[in-house]
Design brief:
two-stranded parallel sheet; globular; alpha/beta
């Protein structure tokens, strides 16, 4: 049995990853801050746990319960801070502290053989600047990339591969209506993207699923950018397209 745990799997990219793993026959465990909106969209092989990742005591307990379903094959992190309070502290605690804590608790809970993978969802702002996002978001994403490299080295001897996936702006289920009502913004993104359109959460989930598959068995410590080529362009080139 392939057992995959998705952190932050009740919306956006995480939701798409859960659906994809479920369609591939995985036993999927999901930890999210909010309950799923539509559990009927997946099979009974998907088990949800609702938890604020900053609650350390409850997190330890729930992770212990998760591995009782079976040893892990895949561990995917898609969470980000969306709460109230200090944005810096929230981003660091949600993206970095909780990811480190979970990896270190579960590193010994992976299956003895077969494909073993950890994937962290980062962002192209790990190396670029998006003024609409706070500084904590930038630092947290950059930290995830380095964290993946560190664990790729230290967990490699156990056969566990660790990689990051870095999307740009994309369309997810929760934002479809926004872009439908703001067609000019969608057209602008499409114009400045070399592939001529915006990406989708499902396309990012496909890359994550690839990294969790035997097809990626010799890939570790890498950051896969999924942005339709938008980050390849020099700023003057982008200005000429406007």
């Amino acid at each position: 049995m392939i057992h995959s745990l998705v952190i932050g799997g009740t919306r956006g990219i995480g939701k798409e990853v859960v659906r994809l793993f479920d369609s591939q026959g995985h036993a999927v465990s999901v930890i999210g801050k909010h309950p799923p909106q539509n559990e009927n969209a997946v099979s009974n092989k998907v088990h949800y746990k609702t938890l604020d990742l900053m609650d350390r005591q409850s997190l330890f307990k729930i992770l212990t319960e998760v591995v009782q379903r079976g040893k892990l094959s895949n561990l995917v992190f898609t969470q980000r801070f969306r709460g109230e309070g200090d944005a810096w502290e929230g981003e660091i605690a949600t993206s970095l502290d909780s990811t480190k804590r979970i990896i270190e608790q579960l590193a010994s809970e992976f299956c003895d053989d077969g494909c073993k993978s950890i994937v962290l969802v980062s962002s192209i702002v790990s190396h670029l600047v998006a003024e609409e996002q706070p500084v904590g978001y930038h630092v947290a994403k950059a930290g995830l990339n380095q964290m993946a490299r560190y664990y790729a080295m230290t967990l490699g001897t156990y056969g566990i591969r660790v990689n990051t996936v870095s999307p740009s702006v994309f369309i997810k289920e929760e934002s479809k209506e926004y872009y439908r009502q703001n067609s000019q913004l969608y057209e602008l993104y499409s114009k400045i993207t070399p592939l001529g359109r915006m990406g989708t959460a499902r396309e990012i989930a496909d890359v994550i699923a690839f990294l969790c598959s035997p097809a990626a068995s010799f890939i570790t410590g890498q950051d896969i950018i999924v942005d339709g080529g938008i980050s390849l362009q020099a700023q003057p080139s982008l200005v000429c397209k406007l």
